[in-house]
Structures are given as C-alpha cells and as structure tokens.
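Hi C.,

You asked whether I'd gotten around to modeling the 298-residue construct. I have! Everything is below, sequence then structure, no commentary in between.
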Amino acid sequence: MAAKANFLPYPRVVFASDFLARIERFSAELAAARARGDEFGGRAVAAGGHDFVGYRPYHAGDDPRLVDWSAYARLDRALVRITRREAGERLLVCVDASASMGAGPPGKWQRAAEVACALVALALREGSTARICITPAEHSGLRSLMVDKPARLVDLLNLFTRIQAGGRGGGAEVLRDDPEFARGGGGARFVISDFSACDPEPFRAHAQRGSDLNLIRILAPHELGLAPDGPVDWFDPERGEHLELEVETGVRARYAVLLAAELERWRTALATALGVRHSVHSSAEPFEDIVRGSLARC
C-alpha cells in the first residue's frame, strides 16, 4: 500500500478548446428535439406555464414550427413566440466541488462542470435564464453566477476553471446555505454531485417547493464497480491520502452489493417524492449522454 498526503487526483476543470461550440451545438439539437416532443418529454428544462407574452429572434437550431409565420410575413423577420415560462423562469443549478468530487479518472468535478454548462446552455436556448451556485461554503465569493445571455457562458467557463475541488461537504449543503435554491418555485433545480455521505431525506423534504428537483449523481468508474482483478486506485478525500490497494474477490463482490443497496435506498426514499428525480452516471460518460439521461423522465 502506498500513501501520499494532501493528494487530490483530479481537482481542476480544464475545458477543451472546442467546448463552448460543443455545448452550443448540443443545446440547439436537444432543444429542437424537445420542442418537437421527439424525446425527453418535449418539456423545457425550466418547465412551467405557456402563456404567450412576446417574441424573440429565431436562432439557428430552433424548430421552424416555432416560428410565427404571420409575424414573418408582416415584418420579414423570423421570430419565435415566447411563453411566460420562457420570459420569467430561472433554472437553478448547484454543483458540488467538495473533495470527493476530485476522484477519477475521468474527474467527477470536470464532468460535473461540463454537465452544468450544458444545462445552462439548454436553458438559454429554451428562453430561460440560469443561476449557478457552487458548494461547499469554502467557495464563497466565487459560488454564484447569473447567466442571462449566451455571451455569459464564457464567464461560466471561467468560473469553473478558477475553482478547485476540495473541502468538506456535498450537494445537500445547498438546501441549507442557498435561500433561493431551498425555497424553490419558478423553475427547475438541479444538484450535480456524487452525494458522498449524503442522505436522501433532505431532498425528499424539499419535494413540494413549487419546482422540480433533479439530482444528477456522478461517480467515477471504479466507484460504480470494481474491476474483477488488479489493484484499486483509491483516495480518502477528507485526509488527502492516496491509496493503491489489492482487493480480494470477496471484498469486490461485497462492495457491489453495498453499492446496489445504497442506490436502492435512494430510489426507494425518493420514489414517492413528487417532483424529485435521481439519476446515476459514470464520469466516463460524455456530458451529452449525462444530460440526456438526467432529462429522460423530465
């Protein structure tokens, strides 16, 4: 067994040079599919009422069926009808940057940041604004950002690259520390975390706060299932110790049983919680697949 003090394998977020173009392309394709009702319930990411209140310019990737063709005939401009949902709702996204999110590979904090950015891009595409908050409290001063137009996506990417995973806490802290998130109402809420050392009950207690609560659990591949043989690379996020362990076959099997029981505990606890969704993903999945999977029942 080898140990290293104060070691976090994947504490930082580094976006690829084409990442911004990638989330904009993905959000356009997904928003168009959702508007058609082809997949993912055809429902806006910050779902709500649909009263008509005005127009916005047509963007590349929008469903042509959303264009008001009578307005186009009068004004010679392609305009999309805006509903009250689009005009007034705000998506709330909390991302867990605690030490346990520094595990991988691929890094959970990296993938969580990518998923958050994609959700925000989708919200903008569907006519909503978004607010990102980072937990735990060590990140105060950098922990909240409003994104109300596509140009601010650059600010969001910069925010994530400035924050390192670290500290104690987890996704549930947002229900205690962020009044707007805890209050709910007005739009969908997302928590992106590994929910390490969390209990489902606080989320269940916030089930009927007037808006959907979507829990996106991201685990490293080795956390989802230990390989049948070979050493396991593990670390203790609280003590900062990096461990490479040989694990017996019986222990691996026992771990699989315990993991299944833990996920079933969450599923059972939230099964009757109206408006709460919980999906489980590997950090090895591309962010596009995680977003699609988390919205599949929305």
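If it helps when you're writing up: The chain is about 35% helix and 20% strand.

Thanks,
B.
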